[in-house]
Amino acid sequence: EKQQLAALISELSDLSLITDPGRLERFSRDFAWFSPILTEQLADKRADLVVRPNDETEIKRVIAACHRHRVPLTLRGSGTGNYGQCTPLEGGVVMDMSALNQVRWIEGGVARVQAGTRLVNIDKEARPKGWEMRLLPSTYRLATAGGFYCGGFGGVGSITYGSIGDPGNVLGVRALSLEAEPRELELRGREALDLYHAYGVNGIITEIEFALAPAYDWQEALLTFPDFMEAVRFCQTLGRASGVIKKLLTVLADPLPQMCGLEEQVPAGRTAVLCIVAKPSFDATRELCEQYGGAIALTQEHADVYGTAHSLIEHAWNHTTLHIFKRDKGITYLQSGFRPWENVEKVEQMYRHFGDEVMMHLEFLRADGALTCSGLQVVRYTDEQRLNAIIQFHRDHGVHIANPHVYTLEEGGKLEVDPRQLAMKRRLDPAGLLNPGKMRSWEEEAVA
Ligand code: FAD
């Protein structure tokens, strides 16, 4: 193995390479430290080499060299994933895609960008043309287009546009195969989705085409409610109000606002709702807020704070968890999905059952077109056994848990093999060198 690696390094010596152990360590990590279980499991996983190609020609050279020497290849955008998605379980090469950062074109509500483009930069170019990204993870300032598509789900915008994997949000991708002579494929529509949320195990994406949204002037508002369930019902009503144009609708049950850095704005004992709505929708939002017993703690123009730490986005989605982690090492989190026809009822059931052990952070969103909410509950961690019992209780009561404490695709997501993703891996990575160990169904097939 050492010889193969040495040969590969000498073939690629004119590219931008990292071999320094400290930097190799850094480029092998993402935010898996959110999970005490993953932290332990991934502690010794490290790349042998990091390559930062400047263009597709260099990418193809890296691919061909990995194929020739049978060295694993794992892709990296900005490394903001949560489950060791870009951590190379079997070492080898980590390919940093961040130099492929050009917006190719923006036209008629569509943006075509290189995979390493930071999402914030797509918005910067789209806005003057009257468009903006439909969906952004709360890490949008760092996260890349490729990393979002292959590792993410949704976030800001999901209340209107669902997830990045919903048909119509991404129109196509350009992908390369991992073979002696890498093939170039333009995958459109349904076929492009076979690479969605696949952790880069079944193809190397070099370009993505996003459908955009019309750009609005947005208003951010931080609301507070004396009662958690009234806050939830407010969100359910606002979420369903078709005339109110929305970008974000987050609930943080007491004491989460006190734990995540909102204690100056949110009095102790109150639940916070973070919302971003189009300016013309703000009056309707305020009226509804009053109807449900809420009060406005803060308003700000989104345009003034977008791209800074002052936006409410920085307290939504997994950023809530991040802020809490910085202050309190004794917690961990869950990712859950409530079914649309019973979301409010199940939220209440879980809230009453677990009390302060599982603190409710909800994100309202559209799933297959229906309004519902997902949870990023903050859990007071005791041990793995108790955490698993909490997960099981949710599952037993019809609440889906996408376990953030595992690194394989199947266990972390839908809990089942996606035959189309597997077929795409056979097609684009027949040697099984892309991010090995992450797709359990592939490993099992290889053993069989
Ligand atoms: P990386 O972490 O670098 O990569 C993610 C995966 O994609 C890896 O498996 C990698 O191998 C693969 N990959 C990267 N580039 C390519 C490519 N060109 N071709 C093929 N595969 C590739 N996620 C959300 O969806 N919504 C959120 O709101 C959200 N909030 C977050 C908040 C915090 C504080 C943190 C730490 C994470 C959050 N995440 C969220 C997770 C993560 O930030 C996003 O998914 C982000 O889009 C990942 O982008 P990245 O460039 O950092 O990807």
Shape estimate: globular
Number of domains: 3
State the CATH topology of the largest domain: Vanillyl-alcohol Oxidase, Chain A, domain 3
Query: What gap, in angstroms, lies between the N and C termini?
Result: 24 Å
CATH superfamily membership of the largest domain: FAD-linked oxidase, cap domain/gating helix
CATH architecture of the largest domain: 3-Layer(aba) Sandwich
Which short descriptors sum up this protein?
Vanillyl-alcohol Oxidase, Chain A, domain 3, 18 helices, 23% strand, single chain, Uridine Diphospho-n-acetylenolpyruvylglucosamine Reductase, domain 2, Uridine Diphospho-n-acetylenolpyruvylglucosamine Reductase, domain 3, alpha+beta, 6-stranded antiparallel β-sheet, 8-stranded antiparallel β-sheet, binds flavin-adenine dinucleotide, 448 residues
Please give the structural blueprint.
Blueprint: H1 2-11, E1 17-18, H2 21-27, H3 36-42, E2 49-51, H4 56-69, E3 73-76, E4 93-96, E5 103-107, E6 110-114, H5 119-126, E7 131-133, H6 145-151, H7 158-161, E8 170-176, E9 184-188, H8 189-192, E10 204-214, E11 218-225, H9 228-240, E12 246-252, H10 256-259, E13 271-278, H11 282-291, E14 295-301, H12 302-305, H13 318-327, E15 331-333, E16 336-337, H14 343-354, E17 358-359, E18 361-367, E19 370-375, E20 378-380, H15 384-396, E21 400-401, H16 409-412, H17 419-428, H18 440-447
Parallel strand pairs: 2-4, 3-4
Antiparallel strand pairs: 1-2, 5-6, 6-10, 7-10, 8-9, 8-10, 11-13, 11-14, 12-13, 12-18, 15-20, 16-19, 16-21, 17-20, 18-19
The protein binds flavin-adenine dinucleotide.
Flavin-adenine dinucleotide (FAD) binds next to strand 3, helix 6, strand 10 and helix 13.
